[in-house]
Design brief:
Helix content: 40-55%
Mean pLDDT: 87
Low-confidence stretches: 1-13
Shape: elongated
Oligomer: single chain
Number of helices: 9
Radius of gyration: 17 Å
Strand content: under 5%
């Protein structure tokens, strides 16, 4: 049990092993914005991972010799999504809309992503943390607002 706890703690500090290394710091430093890659299609409830073709817009020329970019290009050729490991995941019974929360800075919930080479879960996404933020922003804390209001 102790080994499992230590392993989970280490994973939280170092980040999940991603299939392709990705530096938010590098990409945001170049002027990309969160919503350019993480779009919110349809009603805007969910933020997405970027399409591999979006990445290849630049990477057909930038770092194309890199084995990691070659792997990305292979996913793009196959029109297959990169199997990214989700870092922030809410329980199934919690309803969350990125569209409603898009007025906030992404770092509010995801931490200082622009400063990170590797994303780790830095901010709590617990009910207590969410309710504190709702209190701070004078938003409702009614149960059915987040717990499957549909």
């Amino acid at each position: 049990m102790r080994l499992l706890c230590l392993s989970l703690f280490a994973l939280a500090l170092t980040g999940a092993d991603q299939p392709i290394p990705y530096s938010h710091k590098t990409h945001l430093k170049m002027g990309l914005k969160c919503n350019e890659c993480h779009t919110m299609p349809g009603k805007g409830e969910l933020a997405t991972y970027p399409a591999e073709s979006k990445c290849m817009t630049c990477h057909t020329a930038v770092k194309k010799e890199s084995p990691h970019i070659q792997l990305l290009a292979e996913y793009a050729r196959k029109k297959a999504p990169v199997p990214w490991v989700q870092v922030y995941k809410l329980p199934e019974f919690v309803w969350f809309s990125h569209k409603i929360h898009a007025v906030a800075d992404c770092a509010r919930c995801h931490g200082p992503v622009a400063e990170r080479e590797v994303i780790t879960k830095e901010k709590p996404i617990t009910m207590v943390a969410c309710m504190a933020c709702h209190d701070e922003h004078k938003a409702s804390n009614e149960c059915n607002l987040c717990h499957n209001p549909a």
